[in-house]
Amino acid sequence: MKLYSIDTVEDLVLGVKGNQNRDEYEVELEQFYVGEAIRRARILKNLTQEELGARVGVQRSQISRIEKGYNITLANMSKLFKAMDVNVKIEISEIGTFLI
User: Fold this and answer.
1) What is the reported pLDDT for 15?
2) Is there a domain that residue 1 lies in?
3) pLDDT value at residue 71
4) Contact between residue 64 and residue 50 where contact means Cβ atoms under 8 Å apart
5) Which residues on adjacent β-strands are paired with residue 91?
6) 3-state DSSP call for residue 9?
7) Do 12 and 6 form a contact (C-beta atoms < 8 A)?
8) For residue 44, what is the DSSP state?
9) What is the pLDDT at residue 91?
10) CA 71 – CA 42 distance, rounded (Å)
11) In terms of pTM, does the model score above 0.85?
12) Does residue 56 fall inside a structural domain?
């Protein structure tokens, strides 16, 4: 049996980096990770989706969509983490590091 690295599997299944399918996959994966970080922070702060939504002025359903990785913008992400009093570090490797 031959073992493959995750990078090799992604190349074989989705195409190499720069391929439209691969780029879309990577964007969706990053959004999922951000949504999961928001969900975990909310749970650690003992907040319901409804309570967090009230803090930022959106419906519970919007929080649910964000936690699933949909409709995540930098502005929304910043509002949510600030509403939970969570410090977040965003790193953009080509440019530098930013704090929200």
Assistant:
1) 86
2) no
3) 76
4) no
5) 97
6) helix
7) no
8) H
9) 74
10) 17
11) no
12) yes
